[in-house]
Design a protein that fits this description.
single chain; 297 residues; two-stranded antiparallel ribbon
Length: 297
């Protein structure tokens, strides 16, 4: 008798577990509704896709026009830079697709609507990531992917298992690096008034810098975009390694294998690592900084 009761209890628990929504079910539902809403206006959706693709093609045309005049820049030809452009553009476009709307944080802070996110018993970063998604950014990612495919087919690469692994890890870790830049920029907004332009110089400027040969940069830019905001490790240095080209001063090609660990470090970045809440202490008449609770972020 007791055995039957235990079996019935276990069966009911299993049934409830099967019927309970997953932890990410709410996020999937929100994202699905956002995507359906964008596709419901088909004409606008197609126009958005085309306009986003044109922007990507224009940026690629800028690179082509530059190399059409000089032929060789930073020791690279246009065919070789095409791989740099493709990797950088693909990684940034995917990061922009998933976390690009963190740019809305300054608006939330000014309007006071960010508190609404804190009232929900869900992580802040996941809420912000799923608050919107722009499918038009897929076109930019497609242009980056097409550039990679073309560059890999026209450049003589001596393929090996290590190079295949390096290419795969570079794309994944490059996406994480750009996503961490968005998170860093979002956290900085808690400290600055109208600081979006300041952080955009590093986020979007870093994206542009990553599609160019870093050998032509000045020493301060090499330090800034090579090691502080490591966008040079996203595409330029791995490309040198894949093509068996020598690295310039400051960028030895073995740094290409530093992209995965740096991406892992950047991937651990959370808003609560950057965004600190300033709390006033009236009695002491000074300000202190308090880390946001991980339960609320």
């Amino acid at each position: 008798m007791s055995g039957n009761l235990h079996q019935t209890s276990d069966a009911s628990k299993t049934s409830r577990a099967d019927q309970a929504p997953g932890r990410l079910a709410a996020y999937r539902a929100v994202l699905a509704s956002r995507m359906r809403a964008q596709r419901s206006y088909r004409s606008n959706f197609v126009i958005d896709l085309i306009s986003s693709g044109l922007v990507g093609l224009i940026e690629l045309a800028e690179v082509w026009l530059l190399f059409h005049q000089v032929g060789l820049l930073g020791g690279l030809t246009f065919e070789q830079v095409l791989l740099v452009f493709g990797i950088g553009d693909l990684c940034f476009s995917l990061a922009d697709l998933f976390v690009g709307h963190l740019d809305n944080i300054p608006t939330y802070i000014r309007k006071g609507t960010l508190d609404v996110f804190y009232l929900r018993p869900q992580p802040l970063l996941l809420q912000l990531m799923t608050s919107d998604i722009s499918l038009r950014r897929l076109t930019r990612a497609a242009i980056g992917l097409a550039s990679i495919v073309i560059a890999l087919s026209i450049n003589p690469i001596q393929w090996s298992p290590a190079k295949v692994a390096l290419l795969a890890l570079t794309i994944v870790c490059g996406l994480v690096t750009y996503a961490s830049l968005y998170v860093w920029a979002a956290g900085v907004q808690f400290f600055m008034v109208n600081g979006a332009e300041f952080t955009n110089a590093f986020v979007y400027g870093g994206r542009y810098a990553s599609t160019q040969p870093a050998a032509v940069w000045s020493a301060p830019l090499k330090v800034l975009f090579g090691f502080v905001f490591p966008v040079a490790l996203v595409a330029y240095v791995p490309t040198l390694r894949l093509l068996d080209l020598p690295g310039p001063a400051g960028f030895p090609t073995w740094l290409a294998w530093c992209t995965p660990p740096r991406g892992a470090v950047d991937g651990g970045l959370r808003p609560d690592d950057v965004a600190l809440r300033r709390t006033a202490l009236p009695r002491r008449g000074r300000l202190t900084w308090t880390r946001l609770s991980k339960h609320t972020v």
